[in-house]
Write a structure and sequence with these properties.
- This protein is mainly β.
- It has 2 domains: 5-78; 86-203, Pectate Lyase C-like.
- It has a 7-stranded mixed sheet, with no helix packed on it.
- Helix 1 packs parallel to helix 2 (58-69).
- The chain has 2 helices and 16 strands.
């Protein structure tokens, strides 16, 4: 899906699919634009209207529900897709992802916060203790990792995690978890965690 939002009438059931890679603000603005331009959109639509596709924060979900409530009395429900992580791994594989779809996040991820992306995450900040960063592909942090990070979250053991320093609360690549913090000096100024011989090692 190339746009932010897709509205589909499926047998008088309205399904609103949010692009999981689009920014929430763009999604919200697109929905408002579509609703404002379509006065008869809800004619013949049966309850409930379903919003699906992108995982929303609680405040974002409530905001969209309020937007729809101003336009129609029809019940709107939000489907919550599975979070990336161990529970979503169906099989283990190795796939080169040197070139991959990526998204840049700016700022420190603080305790209680979680970011995830079905591609490579590039973070311009730190991962603090108590926070989570989960990516289907690689994780590159231009700062320090002190929280929970999980790369290759759909099972790709070729994924890697790189940061200025890696001292995580928990670190996973695919189905494996870091058991120690043995670091091999490779002299590149950054630390890289990757799987070697069935274990996660950190090269420094």
């Amino acid at each position: 899906m190339n746009t932010e939002v897709l509205f589909e009438n499926k047998n008088n059931k309205l399904v609103v699919t949010l692009n999981k890679n689009a920014d929430y603000v763009d999604i919200k603005n697109k929905i408002i634009s579509i609703l404002d331009a379509s006065s008869d959109m809800f004619f013949g639509i049966e309850s409930p209207i379903t919003i699906t596709g992108k995982r929303l924060a609680d405040n974002e979900e409530q905001e969209l529900l309020n937007i729809f409530a101003k336009k129609t009395p029809i019940l709107v429900v939000v489907e919550k897709p599975k979070r990336l992580g161990v529970a979503t791994i169906n099989n283990i594989f190795n796939k080169d992802i040197t070139i991959s779809n990526s998204k840049v996040f700016t700022g420190t991820v603080r305790s209680g916060q979680r970011i995830e992306f079905e591609g490579t995450i590039i973070l311009l900040g730190d991962v603090n203790a108590g926070s989570e960063v989960v990516a289907e592909q690689n994780i590159v942090v231009l700062g320090d990792i002190r929280g929970h990070v999980h790369a290759g979250a759909k099972g790709n053991r070729s994924a890697f995690i790189a940061a200025k320093s890696i001292n995580p609360t928990q670190l996973r690549i695919a189905d494996l978890m870091l058991k120690n913090e043995n670091k091999v000096d490779i002299g590149n100024g950054y630390e890289i965690a990757r799987i070697n011989m069935g274990e996660i090692n950190i090269e420094k």
